[in-house]
Write a structure and sequence with these properties.
Number of domains: 5
Number of strands: 18
Largest sheet: 7 strands, antiparallel
CATH topology of the largest domain: Uridine Diphospho-n-acetylenolpyruvylglucosamine Reductase, domain 3
Helix content: 25-40%
Strand content: 15-25%
Number of helices: 17
CATH class of the largest domain: Alpha Beta
CATH architecture of the largest domain: 2-Layer Sandwich
Distance between the termini: 25 Å
Shape: globular
Oligomer: single chain
Radius of gyration: 23 Å
Structural class: alpha+beta
Strand order of the largest sheet: 15-12-14-13-17-18-16
Amino acid sequence: MADESQKRIDELKRRIRHVNLYTEYYYRIAYGYDATGIKGLCAGVAFPESQEDIVSIVLNAASLGIPLVPRGAGTGFSGGSVPADGSLVVSTEKMRRVLSFDRRIGEVEVESGIVNGELQNYLRPSGFFYPPDPASYKVSTIGGNIAENAGGPRAYKYGVTRRYVRSLKWITSDGEYLESGPGGPAAFLIGSEGTLGIIYSARLALFPIPKTRKTFLLGSSGDGNAIDIASNLLHSGFSPSVLEFIDSKTMRCVAEHMDILSIIEDRGNSSYLFLEVEGTEIETTDQQRHLNDFCERHGFLLTTAEGEEEREILWELRRSISPSLAKKGITKVNEDIALPLGKLAEAVVRIHELARDKNLDCYIFGHCGDGNLHVNIMTDRRKKLEMKRSGEFVRDLFSYVIAAGGTLSGEHGIGITKRPFLNLAFSPEELRLQEGIKNVMDPGAKLNPGKYFDKIVSAGRGWTS
């Protein structure tokens, strides 16, 4: 079978000589995994530089029976870009141009391979920004953000990626080049994890950069749950643009990583809120006064960033959470559940109980403003029994979340890791409806095989991993 795959790739390489396509083993290894560490082995990696290149790849690969795996930067946490054996990875990293920028209406069109942070840097001198900013914004691509419907810390005020997509230019599994808005087929591509089409470019809505931003770190008192504080704070009239939760274990971990333990010393088992307000100087000053008064009345500890340098330190703290956790274990089991806002405080307590029951090391943080919590178990894949307990924890976690009215994923997608649990979230009828969408948009199952749709009907009949 491997020899046959290689023959097909070699023939494809001959047909599309104008496209860079590599079959060397080191390319196949380098593009065979994402942030989960799960590994696949593709037959080759192609680097299109235009929509014409993508069309050529799709048409010729289809005629040769080669499945395609679209890939941005490979920063995903669900195995969504891990290639099936014998497939061709289609990397968008060479397509990073800004195609147009209309300041009058606040819209930009970019190729799908542009990095989120590169787009932000391009826009900043003109006084605009693109609101979705996942923690991986310095490396993750816009195409990948669209494929996962990424959110980020600003999701509380601005929402997630779907809100900003004005239109997509994309290539179907049959090689047709289309453009459509979010009211058309493009709506299905947002969050589809590369299983329904390959995105060439996106036209995105922008916002003017706020005149002033003020950033804070609020610590609960004692063993109090900061999510309860968040609810009370919002009901008091406070209106943040960023509302993030960090549990006590996670905060200590990141403070050690950054050598800033002084920020949290003498705070015991406090959990934290990372907050930002924005607007005019008058608006942000009013919000800061409101927050100070609230904390003084209730005895909460507030750290305020004085100036841009301190603000950057607090933002670095938030974005250093994932890297800091790497010191706590060789393997990170990372799940991004979403729950109704009223269930979050209870969920944090329950999730830690589930982890203790399995004797697992658990860390929780996330975008509590839109109900998205990142649950991390730090373990070691070499410890078979501990990994078995981790798997049991994940199933218990998802069962609890679905029973509480939540979802399997807030922004990381389903990919490989969550596919076995689709039957917890959807009825057989709902799964068959989703399979119908796949059959219409990718009738030959040529795009990103082995992901969301591959076991979808079996999952509806009680299939498990």
